[in-house]
Known about the structure:
Layout: E1 14-19, E2 26-29, E3 32-34, E4 37-42, E5 51-57, E6 65-74, E7 79-81, E8 84-95, H1 98-121
Antiparallel strand pairs: 1-2, 1-5, 3-4, 4-8, 5-6, 6-8, 7-8
Amino acid sequence: MEKRKYQRIKDGARVIHKIMGVKGEQLAHVLDMSAGGFRLPLKEKLAPGTLLELSIYLSHEKEPFFGLAKIAWQNSDLTKTDKGGYYETGVELIRVGLENRKLIIRYINSLLKEDKQTQKKD
Length: 122
């Protein structure tokens, strides 16, 4: 069984990403996330190690914060949707700052707490 450094949750946080050194930004809704990285639906095929500049929008925060990530893996098969399709892609946060990483951890913990409270009511 795989042991993760950070807890992972499914969440729709938003990320605007841009390939480092290339013009043009795209919006992606996070498929799942941890304080170490995200699984994103990307429209383009990218090689592992490709650097991405990120603007990360958490629903609990008023302003985005910035980070640098690298492609850790990408599915070779296109996931088809009614809007075309995407490649499931794992990105590892390599530069986000300690305070922002703590912000992600607090965000994830608050969502987990909300989820547990909802389950208790059911």
